[in-house]
Design brief:
The chain has 107 residues and is an alpha+beta fold. Helices cover 24% and strands 38% of the residues.
């Protein structure tokens, strides 16, 4: 049900080492996501301790957060592919309901 004229979608955020970001982007595209946002140099504290956001030697040394929004019909395939990817590499995935004002951008 729309929220104040907005359309419900699903937002998927993935934080991985820069070297694994191309595989995440490939998963997004393979699942039919129409776009994504990538934020390089993210920092935070988690299971493997503190990660600074600055680059050490190259783009691959930093963490990257990739964000996409997809309609419900694309969520299962996308999250399944990302879960397989994250089995073999460190990283985290967040899946949340979100609402968008221009649903045609995401389908």
């Amino acid at each position: 049900m729309p929220l104040n004229g907005l359309t419900k979608m699903t937002k998927i955020e993935v934080v991985v080492a820069g070297e694994h970001a191309p595989a995440v982007r490939e998963q997004f595209q393979s699942a039919g996501a129409t776009g994504f946002t990538s934020v390089s140099g993210v920092s935070g504290f988690g299971h493997h301790g503190y990660h600074q956001g600055r680059l050490l030697f190259n783009q691959q040394a930093a963490l990257e957060m990739l964000i996409t929004v997809v309609p419900e019909a694309k969520v299962e395939a996308l999250t399944a592919g990302l879960r397989r990817l994250l089995e073999d590499s460190p990283g985290v995935m967040f899946v949340t309901d979100t609402y968008v004002s221009r649903p045609e951008y995401f389908s």
